[in-house]
């Protein structure tokens, strides 16, 4: 893969550029563009993501320092603040959204055999949303509350590799549960929801295609017990019941029985009540499944900490979406390289290493040889101690 190329160039070589060019042609992204093509725009923004650039001025200064090396990164023109700002505001964000789907398909194939925490033949998805706060005076189009602006990322994560297979970007006002209208349920898959997604009319669409789900049950939902099943209370499962909904409209929206599981988590010292349409798995396994939902929270935390989506390089909706989708592409590129290069380090550590080695001419896999944590311990052992305890 490496022939004296910079680390950044090696990362870009993982990209199916012919598909990217087809998407650019579909949206006429390079129409009347003489300099700074969509290809170069993507590379410049991806470099900003990998190296933690904080602003357009920061990106401009970085490429000014790089100088002629930018040519070997696939960027032929000078990166000016105004050039990048215009591209972010004018280039169709759907180019990068569609290309993210190409990378998602590639990553999904690579992680198809990734083991899960439980035995399950199909895919397991966690669905949730996160809010990115914005300044209302700068982003008036994204009004969220009276004195606050925000955009929201509605995301479906495939827990085989933590690959984001669906992302919908909206203003902060869109209710989380409304995002289910954009998701096509996959047969034989298992979906993990938070309490905010308890809408039985929408959840019934998952049951009709033989997909399973588990969610926290809202306290105001009316139900009636049909059967009680034997449970082992030492496992934390306090009850396992077959129920029917008895509210005003819920029996019409969801006419079939459901399963209600009462579980006490010693880890967080809290009682949790789950509702699921799966009657075959043991109750304790359903509880463990719901615990896996927190991986989507970890994904949101990771991407906010390690990618540039908290500070935006443009103020209009197109610029915000361009930056978010290229950030998602950067995450997927790292995930693809991690699998192809058989790197064992976690994603956060990989991105930290790549962030300071973008211009080095060294094969990527050599950057992660050996146990880095062990090397750090060895270095610490060689240091003189100030105090003898």
Automatic annotation (TrEMBL):
Keywords, ordered alphabetically: DNA recombination, DNA-binding, Transposition
Domain Transposase IS4-like intervals: 121-333
GO terms of biological process kind: DNA transposition
UniProt family annotation: Belongs to the transposase 11 family.
SUPFAM superfamilies: Ribonuclease H-like
Coiled-coil ranges from the UniProt annotation: none
Recorded superkingdom: Bacteria
GO molecular function: DNA binding; transposase activity
UniProt name for this protein: Transposase
Domain DUF4372 span(s) in chain numbering: 4-76
Annotated InterPro entries: DUF4372, RNaseH-like_sf, Transpos_IS4, Transposase_11
């Amino acid at each position: 893969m490496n022939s004296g190329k910079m680390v950044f160039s090696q990362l870009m070589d993982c990209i199916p550029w012919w598909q990217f060019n087809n998407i650019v042609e579909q949206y006429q992204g390079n129409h009347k563009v003489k300099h700074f093509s969509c290809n170069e725009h993507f590379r410049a923004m991806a470099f900003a993501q990998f190296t933690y650039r904080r602003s357009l001025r920061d990106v401009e200064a970085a490429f000014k320092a790089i100088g002629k090396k930018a040519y070997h990164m696939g960027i032929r023109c000078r990166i000016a603040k105004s050039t990048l700002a215009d591209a972010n505001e004018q280039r169709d964000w759907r180019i990068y959204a569609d290309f993210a789907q190409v990378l998602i398909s590639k990553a999904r194939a690579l992680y198809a055999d990734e083991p899960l925490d439980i035995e399950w033949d199909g895919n397991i998805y966690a669905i949730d949303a996160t809010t990115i706060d914005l300044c209302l005076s700068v982003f008036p189009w994204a009004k969220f509350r009276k004195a606050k602006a925000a955009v929201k990322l509605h995301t479906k994560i495939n827990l085989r590799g933590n690959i984001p297979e669906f992302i919908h970007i909206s203003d902060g006002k869109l209710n989380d549960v409304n995002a289910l209208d954009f998701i096509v349920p996959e047969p034989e898959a298992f979906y993990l929801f938070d309490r905010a997604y308890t809408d039985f009319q929408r959840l019934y669409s998952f049951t009709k295609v033989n997909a399973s789900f588990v969610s926290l049950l809202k306290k105001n939902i009316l139900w009636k017990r049909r059967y009680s099943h034997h449970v082992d209370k030492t496992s934390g499962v306090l009850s396992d019941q077959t129920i029917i909904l008895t509210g005003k409209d819920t029996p019409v929206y969801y006419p079939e029985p459901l399963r209600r599981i009462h579980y006490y988590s010693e880890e967080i010292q809290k009682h949790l009540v789950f509702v699921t349409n799966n009657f075959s798995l043991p109750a304790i396994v359903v509880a463990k499944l719901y615990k896996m939902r927190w991986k989507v929270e970890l994904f949101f935390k990771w991407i906010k900490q390690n990618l540039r989506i908290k500070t935006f390089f443009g103020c209009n909706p197109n610029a915000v979406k361009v930056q978010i989708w290229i950030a998602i592409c950067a995450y997927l590129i790292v995930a693809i390289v991690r699998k192809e290069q058989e790197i064992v380090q976690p994603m956060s550590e990989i991105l930290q290493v790549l962030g300071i080695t973008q211009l080095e001419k060294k094969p990527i896999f050599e950057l992660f040889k050996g146990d880095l944590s062990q090397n750090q311990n060895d270095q610490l052992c060689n240091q003189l101690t100030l105090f003898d305890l």
